[in-house]
Design brief:
4-stranded antiparallel β-sheet; 5-stranded antiparallel β-sheet; globular; alpha+beta; 190 residues
Length: 190
C-alpha cells in the first residue's frame, strides 16, 4: 500500500509535465519556418519599426535574395518605401533559414494594434487559400498601410492586426516568433 501512496504523487507530477494539446498549439502552422536575425549587427530601420511594440500596426515582409555570392535579406514595410536590404556576413550565410512556405514568398512580422498590449505576429506571406486550391506558391500578399493584406489573385483580405483572420476563407499561416527589441534578435520558429 505504501508503494502506491508514493507512486500516486509521481504519476500526478508526470501528468503535469506532459505536453498537452492546447488551443494555442493549433493556432500555429504545421509548415516549417526558421529565421534568426540579429538587428544589433545590421540595424535595419524597417525591421526596427516593425518589431517595436510602440509602433503597432506596422508590419514588414522579410524575404531572401541571392545576387552572385552575396545573400541579402530584404525588409519591406507595409507603410511604403523601398525594401531595405541587409547583406548577410559569412557566418550568417551558413545558418539555416526557412522564410515561410518552402522559403519562397517570405514572412510578415509586426505588432497588432487591436489590443491594449500589442501582440507580436509572424505570418507566411503566401495566400493560404490560393495555395490550398492550386498547390503553387505564386500568390504573395500585398500589404496595405491599414494592416490588411490582400491576395492579388483571389482578392481575399487578411487582417494582420487580428491573428491573420479572413472573412471568407482560411486565415493566414502563423508561426511562432519573438524579438528582444528593435535592435535585438528576431527569432522565428515552428
Amino acid at each position: 500500500m505504501t508503494r502506491y501512496k508514493l507512486a500516486l504523487p509521481l504519476i500526478a507530477l508526470l501528468l503535469l509535465l506532459t505536453p498537452s494539446c492546447s488551443k494555442e498549439s493549433f493556432d500555429y502552422s504545421s509548415f516549417h519556418a526558421y529565421f534568426v536575425f540579429n538587428n544589433s549587427i545590421h540595424q535595419n530601420t524597417v525591421l526596427q519599426t516593425a518589431v517595436n511594440p510602440m509602433s503597432p500596426g506596422v508590419f514588414c515582409r522579410i524575404y531572401e535574395v541571392t545576387q552572385g555570392k552575396a545573400v541579402y535579406i530584404y525588409f519591406e514595410s507595409n507603410q511604403g518605401g523601398d525594401p531595405a536590404p541587409s547583406q548577410l556576413n559569412e557566418l550568417e550565410v551558413k545558418q539555416t533559414r526557412m522564410l515561410g512556405l518552402y522559403n519562397k514568398t517570405g514572412i510578415i512580422v509586426g505588432y497588432g494594434n487591436l489590443s491594449s498590449t500589442p501582440v507580436f505576429y509572424v505570418y507566411d506571406s503566401q495566400c493560404p487559400n490560393c495555395y490550398r486550391e492550386t498547390n503553387t506558391m505564386a500568390y504573395k500578399l500585398n500589404m496595405g498601410t491599414n494592416g490588411i493584406a490582400t491576395c492579388p489573385k483571389c482578392n481575399r483580405k487578411y487582417d494582420l492586426n487580428n491573428n491573420g483572420l479572413c472573412a471568407n476563407g482560411r486565415k493566414l499561416e502563423k508561426y511562432r516568433g519573438s524579438c528582444t527589441g528593435p535592435l535585438g534578435v528576431l527569432n522565428v520558429h515552428n
